[in-house]
């Protein structure tokens, strides 16, 4: 096959409403859930705070570890790193958290939308115990939901009862362990914090570290929170849906360019809306015929705002497309994402019409 040629699909993505609350909560409410988006590649341990996008380490003195396959050193790679080795559960990256007697690291992120009171959500993620022989293990991990973000001063532990407890034998060092449960929301959950908490419940102390050394390290990847699959997202009366006419018979040929004009992102948003699905479903039907193809998803923005924010937004838009494709069964390891910000406009940014054209996602299919 001629790898120098690619199919190019330009998605011009439009939302006709501005509410961040309205979107398909059956998709993942966690941004950058597999830690694939990064500010920079790590060069050493304790660099997660400087590398991660959409995530924070809430400990004031905590750093966290960010591991990536493309890391040029053995300290923060995936095949080899300071605490051992592990292939990512998916993609090219994962993070690491240290859990010590007097110091613990946690992961915190803002959900794309607050959870809906009374609705049931699937909560799922993957952990793996780092395999250096001297490391200890823990038998419980936790999730805390909160209305706002918070920080943990100095070396203090998070000593609060969590909403979710995962308990079991978490000593497996070869494979990833799935942690999953169903959670009923109270409607106040906007931020999620994950880690191994120290707290007292009914007289019992939780958060003990197993082993003599009292120092554990765990890898974390692919965090998911979304409405149970049989649930539909709420719809507000103010939504006016537009019927799109979609050509359902795409036959992609090497060198062809397909431009879809009836989908666009609203300026400043990265949320896929229901009216956009027919375009992607049409595209997915083609991809399903060629499962060995690799997709390059590239996000673009207009020039409204500063370049740094636009770059991040374009990455998030590309990731929104990736997450939708993955949810529809496309192999996540066959999808690479990148963000170009406002670097490659299709039209002038001096007019609203031009800016609409520039807010887009391009999908190149490489053979």
UniProtKB/TrEMBL annotation:
Keywords: Cell outer membrane, Membrane, Signal. It comes from the Bacteria. It holds the Pfam family OmpA. PROSITE patterns: OMPA_2 (PS51123). Its main location: membrane. InterPro entries: Bact_OuterMem_StrucFunc, OMP_bac, OmpA-like, OmpA-like_sf. Residues 1-24 form the signal peptide. One of its GO terms (cellular component) is cell outer membrane. This is OmpA/MotB domain protein. It comes from Fluviicola taffensis (strain DSM 16823 / NCIMB 13979 / RW262).
């Amino acid at each position: 096959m001629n790898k120098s040629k690619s199919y190019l699909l330009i998605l011009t993505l439009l939302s006709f409403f501005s509410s961040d609350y309205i979107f398909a909560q059956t998709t993942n409410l966690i941004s950058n859930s597999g830690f694939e988006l990064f500010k920079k590649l790590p060069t050493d341990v304790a660099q997660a705070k400087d590398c991660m996008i959409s995530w924070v380490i809430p400990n004031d003195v905590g750093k966290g570890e960010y591991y990536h396959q493309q890391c040029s050193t053995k300290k923060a790679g995936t095949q080899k790193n300071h605490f051992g080795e592990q292939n990512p559960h998916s993609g090219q990256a994962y993070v690491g958290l240290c859990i010590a007697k007097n110091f613990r690291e946690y992961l915190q992120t803002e959900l794309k939308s607050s959870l809906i009171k009374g609705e049931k959500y699937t909560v799922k993620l993957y952990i793996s115990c780092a395999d250096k022989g001297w490391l200890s293990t823990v038998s419980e991990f936790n999730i805390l939901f909160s209305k706002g973000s918070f920080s943990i001063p100095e070396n203090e532990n998070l000593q609060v009862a969590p909403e979710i407890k995962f308990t079991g034998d978490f000593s497996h060092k070869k494979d990833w362990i799935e942690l999953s449960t169903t959670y009923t929301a109270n409607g106040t959950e906007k931020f999620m914090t994950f880690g191994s908490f120290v707290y007292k419940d009914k007289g019992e102390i939780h958060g003990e570290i197993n082993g003599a050394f009292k120092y554990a390290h765990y890898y974390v990847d692919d965090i998911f929170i979304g409405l149970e699959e049989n649930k539909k997202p709420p719809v507000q009366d103010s939504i006016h849906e537009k019927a799109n006419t979609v050509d359902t018979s795409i036959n992609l040929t090497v060198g062809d360019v397909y431009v879809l004009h009836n989908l666009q992102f609203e300026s400043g948003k990265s949320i896929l809306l229901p009216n956009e699905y027919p375009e992607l479903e049409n595209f997915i039907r083609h991809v399903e015929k060629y499962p060995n193809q690799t997709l390059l998803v590239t996000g673009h923005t207009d020039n409204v705002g500063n370049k740094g924010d636009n770059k991040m937004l374009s990455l998030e838009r590309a990731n929104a497309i990736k997450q939708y494709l993955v949810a529809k069964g496309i192999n996540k390891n066959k999808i690479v994402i990148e963000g170009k910000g406002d670097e490659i406009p299709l039209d002038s940014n001096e007019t609203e019409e031009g800016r609409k054209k520039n807010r887009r996602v391009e999908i190149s299919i490489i053979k």
